[in-house]
Amino acid sequence: MHETYDRPLPGALVASARLGIIGGGQLARLTALAALPLGCEVVVLERNPHSPGARLTPESVVGDWADPGVLARFAARVDVLTLENEFVPADLLRPLAAAGVPVFPTPASLALTQDKFIQKSTLAAAGLPVPEFCAVASPEEIAAAAGRFGWPVVLKSRCLGYDGKGNVTLRSADEIAAGWRKLGGGSNPLLVEAYWPFEHELAVIVTRGRTGEEAVYPVVETIQRHHICHEVWAPAELAHGVAEQAASLARRAVAAVGGIGSFGVEIFLGAAGRLAINELAPRVHNSGHYTIEACECSQFENHARAVLGWPLGSPRLVRPAAAMVNLIGERFGPGWAAGLPGALAVPGAHVHLYGKAMSGPGRKLGHVTVLADTATAARQAARSAARSLSFGGSSS
Amino acid sequence: MHETYDRPLPGALVASARLGIIGGGQLARLTALAALPLGCEVVVLERNPHSPGARLTPESVVGDWADPGVLARFAARVDVLTLENEFVPADLLRPLAAAGVPVFPTPASLALTQDKFIQKSTLAAAGLPVPEFCAVASPEEIAAAAGRFGWPVVLKSRCLGYDGKGNVTLRSADEIAAGWRKLGGGSNPLLVEAYWPFEHELAVIVTRGRTGEEAVYPVVETIQRHHICHEVWAPAELAHGVAEQAASLARRAVAAVGGIGSFGVEIFLGAAGRLAINELAPRVHNSGHYTIEACECSQFENHARAVLGWPLGSPRLVRPAAAMVNLIGERFGPGWAAGLPGALAVPGAHVHLYGKAMSGPGRKLGHVTVLADTATAARQAARSAARSLSFGGSSS
Q1: Nearest-CA distance A340 → chain B (Å)
Q2: What is the pLDDT of residues B131-174, one digit of tens each?
Q3: What are the CA-CA distances from residue A300 to residues A25, A79, B117 (Å)?
Q4: What's the CA gap between A219 and B294, in Å, rounded?
Q5: Which of B15, B341, B351 sits opposite A336 (nearest CB)?
Q6: Are residues B32 and B54 in the same domain?
Q7: Residue B116 forms part of a structural domain
Q8: Cβ <8 Å between B337 and A37
């Protein structure tokens, strides 16, 4: 692990702004691709020297953001700091913000979102619908919570979970001990949620600017498999009034945590149009990748605009329907894609490959978006292009 | 001047393909921004270490492409070589192509286009309409040509001209001597063209793939000032049948030189729908910048697809009208843009800043594209956003 500060930073002379992104994964990469055309110098701080984000800027910094010294020196090189994941502890960022570094989302927003118990408490306090939940400090408290909520319940790590990691569904008291062990109960803070009987999963990207202005993207439906997002359909096909309600919940949720930047809000849709907020991510979000082609201004460009204090662009769809299909690794091996020509031969297929060095089961390695006049046409084409692609060294 | 080969090239392990671009200006940058999402590793060869293209890839090579050794070592690092300008002599590239390096456009195509006399001879031989022209080796031959063509005539440098540099309009025999001196007659090969009485200037981007498949973009109107493109209107508003004829000329012109990749074809439109080919550029072209947002697949992505041997995307417009306004420097000074928030506040404005270190009179520093339902709305908004921006250290 090392930092590289040996190259000059000409960006200071020519850039519209120097945008520092903590984390160098695909979300940093997609943000950089949107910020570069605006004349931004993008600098990524990442432990991995060949991260997807670092691979498209000469000014990346290799270092550990958990080291306050690394973070402070990184902050000194940029005009605004943002992040591509919700795992950077708010407490590490507070001293920077206190010293006058613009950090967006703010450490206060991060503190309200990165711990799921605090997040749900904040949303509930704002009058927003969330599944019943409580913090638990022992297996007995899980049993007590299940007694109140009814089985099944979902046991969750309060922090650091993603793509289903850090979640266990418990169907009966017999499963408590195994779940407690699996999630590190005792040393790792946990919460329990009532199982919420959703019929569909929706998501909304909300970009909120420094002075509270908002861009609210279309309500989409997300299709999950094994807790990983596989498809996004935009717009969601919903009964009258449901989209407006979901958009309103999303706006209120992001405002409740004082969010600045693009946020992803996951919403459950149950019977009779009932809605509950599942989760709020303080960052650009997989459910918004379709916005790169499908919306006038993408979640990524609007994130850059928001954190830099610039006016937001329109989130409206440019075509009636869009479908996004994730490219998920199935095995370990090289991260390059076999079958790209076949995918590009599908009319309208917009292929995004993240340039990850390695494939692995469940890794997000790219995505495909297709716009069309109908949802069916968009989905069929996006799936067809995605099926052409494989990772891990196959020769398909 | 130095080369930097001190960093590893992980792209070989994870990239869909390694695309080498000779030249690091805005055309390389815009091509890189389109090729990166396809998983390409983009490597730029450029003398200037902080070129617009090199500013968004960690793997740029600083060196002089006129040095055959530099070029050969650069070629060894990439899968396909392409170029962002027509000035790299075909003769420098022939040995690489002969040694098996895929170079597109091919040296043969470059040889047919980079010398304007050879280009016009090739187009004329293919039966395509061009203004009358002839090579001239003395002031007397200019006078003789003007005697045949009639005054005025246009005296041009056969090679290396762009944005009006290398062109002089001669209105009478009195102006021959000054024009001859200005363009270096005697040492610099020149040609003379008849002045062609155009009423509008059109342009067409044609992407031609390795096996001859084509994507023909909409015919656009270009608005030039002082021989520099200021605006592009897509699609051009033309009398019945003219667009089809212009597109056909463009296709035939690119085929006539065996073009592979995106080519820009400039076409004069005269009275009664008469057309003549003004010029062919063997590269992505300023008249096609609007395609980034306005077309399903941009000239840049299709250039990458073509030279890499991948299927082409559709060139069709996604909205009825688009307008592109260039951001042209007016004075010397820093290259960053003042007034960006004002430009971004214009609804629908897509702002592209090239990250050039320096502004200067006539330098292309960025562009703005707006899509709309009507041409008027697109132009007004694009001009409004462009007016907000200034370069060279103004504090507007």
Answers
A1: 8
A2: 999 999 999 999 999 999 999 999 999 987 776 678 899 999 99
A3: 14, 18, 47
A4: 24
A5: B15
A6: yes
A7: no
A8: no
